[in-house]
Amino acid sequence: MTRTGVVMWLGLCLCAGCTERASTSPSSSDAGPRSPDAGPVVAGPPGAHEVRADVVPEARVDPSRTPLLDGKAVRFTLSLNHGHRGLSSLSATLGGRPAATARFSADGRRWVVLGNVPIATDDKSAVLRLDGTFVDESPFVLEKSFDIARAAYDKRTIHVPKKYVRAPRKARLRAAQEKKDLARVLEAPHPERLWRGSFVRPTATKETSPYGTLRTYNRRRRPSRHLGWDLDGATGDPIRAAQSGRVALVQDRYYSGGTVVLDHGQGLFTMYFHMSAFDVKAGDTVTKGELIGRVGKSGRVTGPHLHFSVKLGGVYADPADMLALDLSDDPDDVAPLSLPPGMRSKLTPAPASDAGVQ
Ligand SMILES: [Zn+2]
After folding, report:
1. Which residue, 13, 27, 107, 224, could crosslink 53 as a Cys pair with Cβ 3.0–4.6 Å?
2. pLDDT at 158
3. Mean pLDDT, the chain cut into blocks of 10 residues (358 residues total)
């Protein structure tokens, strides 16, 4: 779809539920004949969900970027006009993968959806599907396709100790078990939204290696993708939760070293690798900005740093891009705890280097 196509679509109602509601709602069928100057008819309980019978029901979806980009999450804002009641619930998928949803207005007419596009996908477009329930329990369905363009990612050769390129058998068995442990956590996200507002930086330090780089270790032929964002740091530097949620995993792992995984609900996770110390335990509730551990150089690294990654809908997203996403209009947002200057979601641009690996 061209940009023009998207603009043309915005403002139109493509929702089967909407069309149905416009013809079956008590606000239009029970009100009887009305004179042109009779003013709006209010149906249902007065207050937040008043429906204006003289307003054509309309639903619009505004993506935070068009086209979508591979490897990057995207915010969609769903807005229903006053021809609709509000929605009491909403679930979503993007490209068939679960997306996170949040009510951003008390009347249920404004919702935000966070979707994710896999890096290096061959798909040229992805369908956003919204399934909701109006407050009167009638259904809301909306589907729309968005174009996907390819983002630019670097290629690099990295040198690490041989034992990390071809791990000894004992280590491979250990790593295989740890992979299962992580998969078990990621397959069972908290069903409710625990995330609140914009993300915050987990450290106040600069980037040492970006997300998405195609890396070849020690000139081996098969490259691998760097699916996190490396932030500089000295051993012992504080690491803070980038989002509110629950501690899903605390583990010392072969490749990722001291590891914390936070579950933010609805399939949104953040992960923190190579830590030297933990300040949380599995099951803890954390508020964004809260201290969760310390920078270290455990696992497959060339030096102390934080490898930070974000997973949404089963695929990794660009953490720097996620931090730049404006979610500050979330009415349920919480003030980050004891957050030093420089760790708000505003990014500090810095030249990339190879000071830290994975
Ligand atoms: Zn990394």
Report:
1. 27
2. 77
3. 30 29 30 34 53 91 98 98 95 98 96 98 98 96 98 86 77 95 97 97 95 84 89 96 98 96 98 97 96 94 94 97 96 76 43 38
- Give me ligand 1 centre to Cα 285, in Å: 25
Decide: 197 and 339 in contact? Cβ < 8 Å: no
pTM, to two decimals: 0.81
Instruction: Report the CATH number of the 155-324 domain.
Output: 2.70.70.10
Q: Name every residue whose Cβ is closer than 8 Å to that of residue 195 and which is 6 or more positions away in sequence.
A: 100, 102, 243, 244, 245, 264, 265, 266, 268
- Report which of 53, 96, 102, 106 is spatially closest to residue 77, judged by C-alpha positions: 102
Ligand 1 centroid from CA 289, angstroms: 21
Q: Which residue, among 175, 218, 331, 202, has the nearest Cα to 270 in the 3D structure?
A: 202
Amino acid 337: pLDDT: 65
CA 97 to ligand 1 centroid distance, Å: 25
The pLDDT assigned to 38 comes to 34
Q: Which H helix or E strand runs over 140?
A: strand 139-149
| Domain residue ranges of the chain, discontinuous segments joined by + | 3-149, 155-324
Q: 247 CA distance to ligand 1 centroid (A)? A: 20
- Is residue 112 within 8 A of residue 78, CB to CB? The reply is yes
CA of 208 to the centre of ligand 1 (A): 9
Per-residue pLDDT at 217: 78
CATH class in words for 3-149: mainly beta
Q: How many angstroms is it from 336 CA to the middle of ligand 1? A: 25
Q: Is the separation of the CB atoms in 195 and 328 below 8 Å?
A: no
How far apart (Å, rounded) are the C-alpha atoms in residues 74 and 267? 15
